[in-house]
């Protein structure tokens, strides 16, 4: 069983793998993905696809538009892993 900190750490790793120029940036749970970072909708799609592969889950497309912060993404992953 993965705890929330583990999920957050893996999520950060996925984001930094997709966007190496962001390495070192502080990504907190309240970081808003599209405004606090330079990630656009295509980049976000890449991140979600990589997260689904890394965690072995599927986040429904209709839920993607409700994921605004890093914490929202962690919530979605945590919900799917239960």
| Percent helix range | 55-70%
Structural class: mainly alpha
Strand content: under 5%
Give a quick account of the main beta sheet: strands, pairing sense, barrel closure.
Answer: none
Distance N terminus to C terminus?
9 Å
State the order of secondary-structure elements, H for helix, E for strand.
HHHHH
Rg, alpha carbons = 12 Å
Q: How many strand units?
A: 0
Number of helix segments?
A: 5
Shape: globular
Query: What is the residue-averaged pLDDT?
Result: 94
Low-confidence segments, ≥5 residues, pLDDT <50? none
Structure report:
The chain is an all-alpha fold. 61% of the residues lie in helices and 0% in strands. It contains five helices and no strands. The chain has helices spanning 4-18, 33-36, 41-55, 61-64, 70-81. Helix 1 crosses helix 3 (41-55) and helix 1 (4-18) packs across helix 5 (70-81). It is globular. The N and C termini lie close together (9 Å).
What's the topology here?
Elements: H1 4-18, H2 33-36, H3 41-55, H4 61-64, H5 70-81
Please describe the structure with a list of short key phrases separated by commas or semicolons.
82 residues; 0% strand; mainly alpha; single chain
Q: Nutshell version of this structure?
A:
With 82 residues, this protein is an all-alpha fold.
